[in-house]
Each structure stands twice: as structure tokens, then as C-alpha cells.
Amino acid sequence: MTTAPKSPDDGRAPGEIPLSEIEAILEGRHSNPFAVLGLHKLSSGYHVRCFIPGAEEVAAYLLDGTRLGLLKRRHEAGFFEGPVEVSSPKPIRYRARRGGDDEWAVTDPYSFGPVLGPMDDYFVREGSHLRLFDKMGAHPIRHQGVDGFHFAVWAPNARRVSVVGDFNNWDGRLHVMRLRQDTGIWEIFAPDVRAGSPYKFEIIGRDGERLLKADPYARKAEMRPNTASVTTPELKQDWEDEAHLTHWQKADHRRQPISIYEVHAGSWQRRDDGTFLSWDELAARLIPYVTDMGFTHIEFLPVTEHPYDPSWGYQTTGLYAPTARFGDPEGFARFVNGCHKVGIGVILDWVPAHFPTDEHGLRRFDGTALYEHEDPRQGFHPDWNTAIYNFGRLEVLSYLINNALYWAEKFHLDGLRVDAVASMLYLDYSRKEGEWVPNEYGGRENLEAVRFLQKLNSLSYGNHPGVMTIAEESTSWPKVSHPVHEGGLGFGFKWNMGFMHDTLSYLKREPIHRKHHHNEITFGLVYAFSENFVLPLSHDEVVHGKGSLIAKMAGDDWQKFANLRAYYAFMWGYPGKKLLFMGQEFAQWSEWSEAKALDWNLLHYHQHEGMRRLVRDLNLCYRAKPALHARDCEPEGFRWLIADDHDHSVFAWLRMAPGERPVAVVTNFTPTYRENYRLPLPTAGRWREILNTDAEIYGGSGKGNGGRVQAVDAGGDISTTMTLPPLATIMLELEQV
């Protein structure tokens, strides 16, 4: 008679699990450790199981120190279990021992219940959860009497997800997360984890591949080249900006003076040793400078976490984390608070169009195309070698929209400049025939991106009426800055790329040729009020071999400075809000480089200091004169005075606002000094010269009209004769009738 071979699991005591399950835990293959580890009620009473690598002896305790008993070691790798005397489920703490004196405590993460609830699941599935930034990622909480961090991450196609970090020696077997089946979100409460701990998610994909990913919702990250996320306390800031926020909540942005100073935080200035300034150091230098210069807003190139300095922040791997380059998130909050206290708004350059393919980032996050499209014709960007968000997935939309709301709520930001909107709107953007997938109607419009942008703007303005959204959009897509309920995309403003392109093209030409290209200046007024425009002289115009603005100007050095002064005043007098990239306000000669500070030493030279003074005076004038800003976006605020003087390359127009004195803007774009030039004006009387770019204080030749001109009514034909300095813009304000 033969007997069957003994099973390796034979001889188990009641309640003990099979050795095969223990091995699955030890090897990180178990799909649901919460069903095995921790405290469980059996028919015979409560039973506890734990895996503590390296332990030789383990005793179980309640949090109050009550000893529950010594556990049996089932596997020498550190698996223990045994019955305990408790009356109901409670958190368990273990005391582990190895050798004689090596002893340590471990609070069991598997003895805690879930943190997320059914309402979270419902709103996530519906795509209407507007506080995901308080639920996803890593948050410090006190749960069932214990302090620790709650971690949550979306990875619906993963076999297993663990949070790993210094707190568990980066061992993916120790904090395997609980899957919420309805949403694909994995969560775990990790007791005793402290703020400042680096962490990542270890994800076992559908095909068994091991991925190590940074937290998409991380609120802090390691300094590059390290790529881990970092646990951080909830943001604490004593905000002192109620007056600032109230002003913008009640204001019509279109009728406010908005003059934006665009800044790359890493290269505006640096310390003497070449390292980055902290947010506090930036606040001490940048805020007073911007205040003195008269700008109303600072717009930062992306300050969200990114691995590669030369990407300028546009290839972000941490949309929720202010980059570690300049310090903690609290430092950024203090900077914003400091700006608001003196009335300066802060705008963040925001990148929802694409994301980089770094291994620790969002690409193939759970082993599948999760945040991006699977099809590279939809999910890969040929211009930037990046992945494109899948705007058709509710979870992806929620991730991005929650991020926009996060910056407004947590950091009180005044607006988002949305990067590369055109690349989102068109399925064939930068693609040849056959390289793109048409929409459901056979067209090239990305209807999912349209719906995303409309939802983004509706929810941003609905939840934070004081913010503004600004589209960098370079095509003729209609109604970009029109309300969603009127069929628009819902942005507050749109960058006027046509203005920038046409005017710079004109100013590169030698003055003798400009009369043949007069329409490059006048054409912009055909569409100037079709959108709410921002006039951008941005970083894009001073990189990649394009040279600085002063270097683009035609002529010798004197003419270059005169051209640029005339151009700035022309722009500040033109309808639309203003944006100028750092360094261009003092006419930096060299092309901008993110690797070094601006050439501030140039301010020792009269021409450069004169340019800075001009930009300052333009801002102060623009803000002080409602005629120059209150109807920036409405045709009633503009009237041509001279539009067809091709031969002399002279342009003149009137800026107006109800109940305010009108301002005439006159530009001579040739180096010819013109006396007795006839300028039609709407009202007889004295017109005061409130700005002249040829003034000596700005570096000009000092030609002008003695401070005022007299407009005379000659039988219904009102005009003045005036002097036009060479390559100059003059602004005249009606002084008295």
C-alpha cells in the first residue's frame, strides 16, 4: 500500500495560511496582501499575520502597549502569524527582535482600514471630483489614532502597486496598496512615515514588468538629478492678500491695465557663485524691481518640477510640485503672498498639452498607455519627442483640471498661461498626411481637447472668478477668448502672435524699405478686437538663434535703440494687454540663456538704462491713463488718425475710454526728422506730450514739441502741426479744450 506524498503545507495550525501564499507575499507576487496580512477574524477568534524582513522574533501589541502575544515564525525570511486576544479589529504594532540587542517597532499598515470612501469613487468615476489634490498623492493624516501618510495613485491595469521609500528600504513587498476596483485607484495608509521622506510607486504591470514611478500628484519632489517624490506637510501660509484677491474677483480683466513681466526664475539673477536664488531671495530682489518698473503681473515660465534645465520647465514631470531648484513649496507661497501684498499678480506658464517620456514620469504609467494615447499618431508629439495627454479619458481630464484649480486654491495664483494650445486643437499639428487620425466626423479638429479646454475654463472661472486664463494659440481658431456658452473655448485672453510676427518682421527691415510693407503694421487692426488679446514679446522671440529684440532691429547701434524705443511705445499704445520677457526691458544684446543670469551690468550704460526708464514710464503711463487700457479689447477704444502714410512710414491713432481724456499715439518709423507734420486730432485745444521716446533721458536725440502742441479748428477740420523725432513714438493727451 502506497501513501500520497505529504503536502509542504501539511501540519498547519488552525488559521495558518498555506506556504504557497507566504511565498507569494515574500516574492511580491500576492495580488491582495490585505486579505492575508494584518488582523483577521476567524471562527476561532482573531489572528494576526505580518512580514518583517530580518526579524527572528516578533510580538504583537495594541497601540496602548497592551501585549497580545508572541507570534510564530512561519518563514525564516520574516513571516510571522498567530492568534491574539482582541475583541474587535484594531491597529497592531509589532516589536521585532534580531540577535541579542537589535530591536525595533513596526506599526502594521494592513491593520488599518481604507481612507477613501464610496463618494470619492462616485465622483472619480463621474469625472466631477474637484478636490483630487486633497485625496490623491501623499497626505499627512491621523488615521485610527496613528500619524502617517496616506498614499493614493491611479493605475487600473497594474497587477500590484506598492509605495516604496526610505521608510521601507525601497522594498516593494512591504507597503503593497489596496485596489479600489471601481476606480482603479490604489491606496494605503502608511503609519509613522514622516514628512521629508523620498518615495515612489513600484508598479508591476500587466505583463509583469517592474516600473518605478514618481507620484503624479506629488506636492514636492527631489532636486534633480534625483527623481523621487517627497512627502510634505499640507501647505501652511498666512495669506495677507485679501485686498488683492477681492480687487481681481470684482474686476473686469479686459478693462484693467495688465502689463506682464515674463520671468525664467532660474536665470533672472543668480547668486555670486552662480547657483539659483531661493524663493525668498527672489522675493527680496524681484518683487521690488517689478514694483518699481510698474508691471502689474509676473508670469513665470513653468516652475513645476522638471528634470532637465534646458527644457525651461516645459517638459514637466511633476505638475503639482513647485520645483525643488528654488526651495520648498512654502517658499513659493511666500513669494506669491509677497507679490500680492504690493498688488502684483502671479501667472504660471502651464503645460497640459504634452509630457516628457522620462522613465519615472507618466508615460506608460501602469505598463499601458494610461495618460497618453496608445496610437503614436495621437499619443506622441513629433516636435518635442513627448507624449500627448489622452483628453478623451475622464481620469486624465480630472488630473489636469484639478491641477489648474490646485494652483489657484493652494497658492492663490492669479492666472494660467496655457502653453501650446494650437498643438492641442489640431490632430494634424506638425504631422503629414497619414500621420494623424481624423476625428469622428473626419475632420482635423481635436474635439476631445476642445471639450477639455472648455471644461477647464468653465471650472476655473466658476471656482475662482479672480483668476484669468491666457491661451498661447497661434492660429485663426475662432472664439478662443469667447465664453463657452457662446461656442468659445472660454479663455480670458489669447496671445496675439500675429502682432508679434508682423511688427518684428517690419522692424527688421531697413527704414527705406518699410513703405513697401506698411500693411505689416496696419493689418493687425483688422482683427485686433476679434479676441481679448495679450501682445507678447516673449522668451520665444529671443532664443534658438533669433537673437535679442535689440539685435533684431535694423540700422546701426543708435538706430537699433531708437527703433526698439519707438516699438515699445507703439506697443504700449496699441490695443491689447502687454507682455515683455525679462532682459528686454533694458535691451540685453545677447540671446537669452537659461544657464546664466541676465547681463545686468549693461545698466551702467546710458542707452540701456534709458531703455529701462522708458519701459518703466510706459508702464506707469499705461496704468495711469484709462484711455490706454480701459478699452483694450473693444473697438470703441481705438480710432485711426493716420493709417495710409506709406511714404513717411508714419502711423497715428487715438485711444479712448468713456469719460476720460483721449490719448493720441504717433510713431515715425524712419530716421528722418520731420517738422511741421500735420496730424488730425478730434478736439481743438492743447495736447500735452506725455511721452516721447526720443527724449534724452531715454537715450534719444532730444527732439520734440516743447511739451505740447495746439490743435486748431479750421472750419471743422481739426489738426495740429508737430515735430516728429526720428525713429520715435510720441503720446499726446488732451489737456484742455
Structure description:
The longest helix has 19 residues, at 606-624. The strands form eight sheets. The chain has an eight-stranded parallel barrel with strand order 17-18-21-25-26-27-28-29. Strands 30-31-32-37-34-35-36-33 form an eight-stranded antiparallel β-sheet. Helices cover 22% and strands 27% of the residues. The chain is α+β, with helices and mostly antiparallel strands and 737 residues long.
Distance between the termini: 125 Å
Radius of gyration computed on alpha carbons: 32 Å
Please give the share of residues in helix: 10-25%
User: Which sheet architecture does the biggest sheet show?
Assistant: 8 strands, parallel, barrel
Shape: elongated
Total of DSSP H or I helical runs spanning 4+ residues: 16
Spans of at least 5 consecutive residues with low confidence: 1-8
Pick out its properties.
737 residues, GH, single chain, 8-stranded parallel β-barrel, glycogen metabolism, EC 2.4.1.18
Any chance you could write out the topology, listing elements then pairs?
Blueprint: H1 19-26, E1 38-42, E2 45-51, E3 57-62, E4 67-70, E5 72-75, E6 79-84, E7 92-98, E8 102-107, H2 118-126, E9 137-143, E10 146-154, E11 160-165, E12 178-180, E13 185-191, E14 198-204, E15 210-213, E16 229-230, H3 242-250, E17 259-263, H4 279-293, E18 297-300, E19 304-305, E20 318-322, H5 329-341, E21 345-350, E22 354-355, H6 376-379, E23 380-381, E24 386-388, H7 394-411, E25 415-418, H8 421-425, H9 447-463, E26 468-471, E27 493-495, H10 497-507, H11 519-522, H12 524-527, E28 533-537, H13 549-552, H14 557-573, E29 577-581, H15 606-624, H16 626-629, E30 638-645, E31 650-655, E32 663-668, E33 674-680, E34 685-692, E35 708-714, E36 717-724, E37 728-736
Helix pairs in contact: 4-5, 7-9, 14-15
